[in-house]
């Protein structure tokens, strides 16, 4: 840690330090993205609301800690937080996470050095909040989140691969989210629905379902706040809300069809063109 020139920033009520770098990149020694400050601000409001509804202390998992800014802010700025677990597979990131915990004089925060999916599977049912904020797609980690999440917990999911979700690159969306996107003037809405649908499908394998409490598409990312509920019947009902949208690029006719095995029309009923 002593080998790096440090940059100090203040975000909300929290101060952190991390190695200086020229641009936001996954190649940075320790990851900190200033463009995600609004994401973290909204997260603090959402988690505070969740904590008030629970009316007790909540335990939080920050799965991709980076500089530690998210987990440290959660502990420092949200009332009623019990324990915060900050995980990152980078040992250097772990050093800065602990440094920033100490910098803010905080207790009840633990630093972990594990593969993200393994960390979730080793801590089944331990968290009230699981926050998945990776660099890129969250899809590889949602299975483990579904396994780990307990009843009435909060699952927070960020996706920054919006070019796939919005239909600029169709094949990656099919590969990562089992959905074929369509690039249109409302592609950010369909993109966030694809993300929510994939979360619902993934958690249904564990007889769990989701309720979307809040969603937003901002700048380069999409963000979901999901209430996790248990029960196979609930999961079955939840999956009935997943479906398809048919779009005619000639006359702009649109049609929604619910159900994973539903019949999808081939031609537009208005102008006869291919949907």
Report on this structure.
The strands form three sheets. Strands 5-4-3-6-7-9-8 form a seven-stranded mixed beta sheet, with helices on both faces. β8 (208-218) and β9 (221-230) form a beta hairpin. It is built from nine helices and eleven strands. The mean pLDDT is 95. With 275 residues, it is an alpha/beta fold.
Strand content: 25-35%
Name the poorly predicted regions.
none
Query: Spatial order of the strands in the main sheet?
Result: 5-4-3-6-7-9-8
Kindly report how far apart the N and C termini lie. 57 Å
Architecture of the largest domain, CATH level 2? 3-Layer(aba) Sandwich
| CATH topology category name of the largest domain | Rossmann fold
Mean pLDDT: 95
Return the structural class: alpha/beta
CATH homologous superfamily annotation of the largest domain: Vaccinia Virus protein VP39
Largest sheet: 7 strands, mixed
Compact description:
Helix content is 34%, strand content 25%. The protein is α/β, with parallel strands linked by helices.
List strands and helices in order, with pairings.
Layout: E1 6-11, E2 14-19, H1 37-54, E3 58-62, H2 69-77, E4 81-87, H3 91-103, E5 109-112, H4 116-121, E6 129-132, H5 139-148, E7 154-159, H6 162-165, H7 170-177, H8 187-204, E8 208-218, E9 221-230, H9 232-239, E10 243-247, E11 254-258
Parallel strand pairs: 3-4, 3-6, 4-5, 6-7
Antiparallel strand pairs: 1-2, 7-9, 8-9, 10-11
Helix pairs in contact: 5-8, 8-9
